[in-house]
Amino acid sequence: xxxxxxxINSSMIDEKAxxxxxxxxxFVKFYQEANPKDxxxxxxxxxxxMASITLTTRNFNNFFNQEDSDKYIDQLKSVxxxxxxxxxxxxNVTSMTKNYLDHxxxxxxxxxxxxxxxxxxxxxxxxxxxxxxxxxxxxYGWYLWGNHAKxxxxxxxxTGATVAPSILVCxxxxxxxxxxxxxxxxxxxxxxxxxxxxxxxxxxxxxxxEKYIKEAAKKF
Length: 220
Known about the structure:
- By secondary structure, the chain is α/β, with parallel strands linked by helices.
- It has six helices and ten strands.
- The two termini are 15 Å apart.
């Protein structure tokens, strides 16, 4: 049976310069090769007015509405798989990602306390499988207190989704890295070190990591 796959891009970087976009294109290409019958749906948060709306006291009463909240919750429930893409921005996910999550993480719609025990929430997106594709300017380990990939993993697990090992491309802005600086992490495995990704650029970087990305895409 064919799957419906939602690809959400939250990178605000111009497409030609974006390591996140290059990573997404590479992953989706290999995924489609392995799953040619699956339907791919692209959602760019840059194009959604909803992704620019931040929850405040002034809009609290109408923030969760049919157009900005229920519409995207229903979309999540209509697909089997989600590929979520974000670069690190100020040691966290992008503001568009946070706004999107604020709209879809709604009690009794994507999670519930109704049937929980000891205060633990019950996730309602149990049919969803999630792949996080993340990038960051610094090499891995420089800002572990701002581990945006881990944040997204745990957030989607909270909703009941099954989460595949994240793919994290690191050091995209460091010109002269040390030889032991980690540049590619999948799950908890550090797979590549050294080399300046700034010199390689997005496309050549993904070519360098191609075998790892292809393997992950086939598993997803």
